[in-house]
Amino acid sequence: MAQRPVILIVGGGYVGLYTALRLQKKLRRGRAEIIVVDPQPHMTYQPFLPEAAAGSVEPRHVVVPLRRTLDQCRVITGAVAGLSHADRTATVTPAEGDSFELRYDVLVMAAGSVARTLPIPGLAEHGIGFKNVGEAIYLRNHVLARLDAASSTDDPQVRRRALTFTFVGGGYAGIEAFAELEDMARYALERYYPRLSPADMRWVLVEATGRILPEVDADMGAWTVQQLQARGMEVKLNTTLDSVSDDGVVRTGDGDEFASDTLVWTAGTKPHPMLAQTDLPLDERGRVRCRATLQVDGLDGAWAAGDLAAVPDVTKDEPGATTAPNAQHAVRQAKRLADNIVAVLDGEQPVEYRHAYAGSVASLGLHKGVAQVYGVKLKGRPAWWMHRAYHVSRVPTLNRKVRVVADWALASVFRREVIALGQLQNPRREFVAAATGGQAPSIPPPSAADRDQSGPRAS
Ligand SMILES: Cc1cc2nc3c(=O)[nH]c(=O)nc-3n(C[C@H](O)[C@H](O)[C@H](O)COP(=O)(O)OP(=O)(O)OC[C@H]3O[C@@H](n4cnc5c(N)ncnc54)[C@H](O)[C@@H]3O)c2cc1C
Question: Best of 63, 132, 172, 275 to mutate for ligand 1, by most ligand atoms within 8 A of CB?
Fold first, then answer.
């Protein structure tokens, strides 16, 4: 190993950020060079995405800037396209310019997961995920723009289609997004859209299994279904999304067929596909095979954690049990991983990662929630308070904690901001129309093609 080892961290999300923070604190300056590569200049605190979409938290406050936070690391804005650990070399594709090779001594693989999709006709053309801040803000603007469109037409078919919102997948990400956006739409509609009523909206959740929120006990999942149904929302259990037609008509496995301008896919994740371009050992689900110490199986100087890692769960008796892909494990694994790297650099033995899953908290809209932590089950407002208290204690940096609390305080004093900034979806539309002598429609159409041209943008 070189005099000053290079530690390459692939991904600046939960695992990457927390590992880098701890390494820069624990390693004396100059003891190692820490390089963090991520396509985004920030870490995203994903559990706040539903609240960002609902307008309870400012989009910028759910991300943590890497360069400011990791002031003793080198941050490269780009993607690792693949690597050869045998040669200790990674191929980096920067945000601009040609790809280059990066030599390292110690690898931390932390590129997380991507949406796990299925080859459903029309899904790729019409669907959108809910994993990053761009998608969350796009959906916020899109849902509000659909209310504007529905309120401004006399065509019942256009109105019905605009006000039909379809979500696929009933894990915490999907349920929180579904419930928070409906809560926001209802709030906006009751106050500012006298021509519409909440009964005009149709919110449909499609879930292939017989329950939602597998992170909590079945009775809590069933209670959540009842709460959503009491709000007039439809939860289709044991139902699949079968197809989406070119003009946005959704067909589900129960024979239902309806036009919907909104299709959100939150039906699970899979390990980052870039792993296939590496020589790291992968299991049958495409995850990096790890030991309980978070070392990559059979390799020296390679570590992995988080959503893409198959880490043995030593708290369970079942043979082959691995830790679940969630933030709770990601944060704790990152800390253990950083301590283990320091231990190995000091010639000591790494320690096994051990954490029994504590439970889950989910927000279902303002003052509504469901939680199960260390066996204690909470419903409604107490669960919602627990959700907020837990996540504000977890969001990285004091700066972000203060800003998030300030957002909540302002939203409780003044009314919620429910204005669609539709121009953010395609900011050049008007200028291009002016420059080419065309006409610019004031409300962007909701098609996937429109999303593709401009890319979602945070406000
Ligand atoms: C909407 C939502 C809500 C959630 N709520 C909860 C919750 O309430 N509780 C909970 O426990 N968990 C929750 N999760 C799950 C949790 O966020 C993840 O388990 C956690 O982020 C995993 O951490 P990670 O570091 O493995 O991946 P991530 O945090 O996703 O980080 C991966 C990083 O790698 C970067 N990257 C991607 N490709 C490359 C590449 N080629 N090269 C370099 N870098 C790359 C990405 O940009 C990203 O920054 C939620 C997830 C979502 C989407």
Answer: 172
β-sheet with 302-304: strand ranges across: 100-103, 89-94, 74-84, 33-38, 6-10, 106-109, 302-304
Residue indicated by tokens 């994993």: 131
Mutate to test the pocket of ligand 1, among 8, 10, 21, 38 (most ligand atoms within 8 A of CB): 38
Percent of the chain with pLDDT over 90: 78
Q: In a 10 Å sphere around its CB, with 0-12 CB exposed, 13-18 middle and 19+ buried, how is residue 397 labelled?
A: middle
Please give the order of strands across the beta sheet that includes 241-244: 241-244, 249-252, 257-259
Q: Which residues, in sequence order, are bridge partners of residue 251?
A: 243, 257
* Model confidence at 312: pLDDT above 70: yes
Query: pTM to 2 decimals?
Result: 0.90
Orientation angle between helical segments 14-26 and 327-345, nearest 10 degrees: 30
Determine phi and psi for 64, rounding to 5 degrees. Answer: -120, 120
Residue 260, pLDDT > 80, answer yes
Residue with token string 């837990």: 390
CA distance 445 to 69: 38
Residues 212/370, Cβ–Cβ less than 8 Å: no
